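It is worth pausing here to work through a concrete case rather than discussing structure prediction in the abstract. The textbook approach is simple: state the sequence, then state the predicted structure, then interpret. We follow exactly that order.
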Amino acid sequence: MEKCKIIKAHSKAYTQGIFQSIGFKEFHNYLILNEEERNSEKGKKLLFQGIEDLKTVTKKYARKQCRWIQNRFLKAGNRQVPPVYYLNATDLSRWDDLILNPAVAVVSQLLDPNWKGCVPAPLARNLTPLPSSKGENYCTVCQRVFIGDLQWQAHLSSNKHKRMLKKRQRLLCHLHEKKKKMQRKSSLHRCGVINIGGII
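Step two, the predicted structure:
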């Protein structure tokens, strides 16, 4: 019972502040064990599971960051964006060649425009940017206001809007079916009254 309270208290804390960061939630089951349980077979198993979960979450977060950088900076159409430079950190034994020296070269180039040698990642210039205006658009499905065509088009293609649209369509279909059933019931009652009247 006491352990359940501790788990519940800790799980609430992991949704706030620094406890949301990667590395806390993954080791929760291991961290609530006492010293003796941590050294047991069960504790070692939970520690190994925490390490595996940490690796999975870190990879997922890294992929999300890469997608964000791609969409925000490299697929920017004709927006003015800062240059993005790739650094390959997959082989730590070649840290100086792959990370340190290229990073120093990038900083040197930023400090001295005459310095050459670093080429930023190419932008996807073939994308046509959406026109931006100051007009207001109201989404009746999500009940939100969007300023400008850029935000409006982004909202219309977002997953959240599509989910809300499907939900609304399902609700309308359900109401339509309910209305049909009610109409059928009322027509059956009318037919029954006529038949009874005919018999009498």
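Step three, interpretation. The first strand starts at residue 136 and ends at 139. The mean pLDDT is 76.
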